[in-house]
Amino acid sequence: MPVLAIPYPGIDPVAFSVGPFDVRWYGLAYAAGLIAGWLMLRAIVANRGLWGEKGPPFAVDRVDDLVFAVFVAGVAGGRLGQVLLYELPYFAANPTEIVKVWKGGMSFHGGIVGAMLATVWFARRHGVPVRTVMDLTAAAMPFGILLGRIANFVNHEHWGRVSDVPWAMVFPDGGPLPRHPSQLYEAGLEGLLALVVVGVLIWGNKALQQPGRVAGSWLVWYAVARVISEFFREPEAGHWLNLGPFTAGQLYSIPVLLLGVWALRGGAVPARSGEPGS
């Protein structure tokens, strides 16, 4: 082992066991992110001062329905994204593994498709502008990303490229050479700093009074942060979208960036007859 490499801490992915069932840190991370996002959204909707003269778009109790819908659709989309975008040959040969989400393996880009579908569904069902619901969904997302990336580190998956920086680590499945702990970079850029950006926009700039501003800013931030992080993260081996210096993760982030620009520019989803504009 190189002298400067930091040994991987060797955290057991299983937090504890209940009888024959293992409870993994990965699952606990997503549960904690869900609870944190839910509490934050309830506080946001309950704070009339954040919304201007019209007030919140719906009652606080509606937050429960939104969080549940986005969580279920986001997890389903994230898992299907991992299957279709990154590991189709493996899952085609091992279809029973698809449902084992507690073992890790979630694609953010698939997750955001699922979350967006749930967001549009919720907005249509309750007659609320889509970009307003997008803002709320975006406000809760950084919690899950922050804790999810830390869970990736615990699972010693999605490790970084080979590096000689003093804080490089030798990961259990990453070969003998030290690598960037890129999961922690992503936790900071895509999670923690995104949470700060969202918080400043909502509480500092009252951005919820301009529908689409929070969601657009967060989407643009995530896309840029992911592109930067991918320069330190080991690319998915053999992926057809690893083109020259660019990785599949970077190219999948382009639609996220464009969606963010659309939201910031005031793009609209056509409303059904009798519903308010989006």
Provide an overview of this structure:
There is one protein chain. With 278 residues, this protein is mostly helical. It has one domain (22-264). Helices cover 56% and strands 5% of the residues. Strands 1-4 form a two-stranded parallel sheet. Strands 2-3 form a two-stranded antiparallel ribbon. The relative contact order is 0.13.
Give the gist of this structure.
With 278 residues, the chain is mainly alpha-helical. It is 56% helix and 5% strand. It has eight helices and four strands, in the order βββαααααβααα.
Helix content: 55-70%
Shape: globular
Topology as H/E string? EEEHHHHHEHHH
Structural class: mainly alpha
Beta percentage is under 5%
Strand and helix map with partners:
Layout: E1 6-7, E2 14-18, E3 21-24, H1 25-46, H2 62-86, H3 88-93, H4 108-126, H5 130-154, E4 169-170, H6 182-204, H7 213-230, H8 248-264
Parallel strand pairs: 1-4
Antiparallel strand pairs: 2-3
Task: Please give a handful of descriptors for the protein shown.
278 residues; mainly alpha; two-stranded parallel ribbon; two-stranded antiparallel ribbon; 56% helix; globular; disordered C terminus
